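Collaborator request, handled under Task 6.
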Amino acid sequence: MNKLVKYLGTALLAGTLFATIPACQKQQGPAEKAGQAIDNAVDKAGQKMEKAGDDIQDAAKGDKK
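Structure tokens returned to the collaborator:
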């Protein structure tokens, strides 16, 4: 019986810890939000530049024919 109580207590403690850890994450502040917005803008600009480069290469290949 003593072992059963010990195991149940350990399981209860572990369950409580796993349930409360996600609640400890801090909210994003304005600097983090601004940083994410900048990262997204840079990623989009990079994708558009890559597409423009591909379009230029395709156009150049078409001119050589």
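The cover message to the collaborator said: "The CA atoms of residues 13 and 60 lie 67 Å apart. The mean pLDDT is 83. Please let us know whether this matches your experimental observations."
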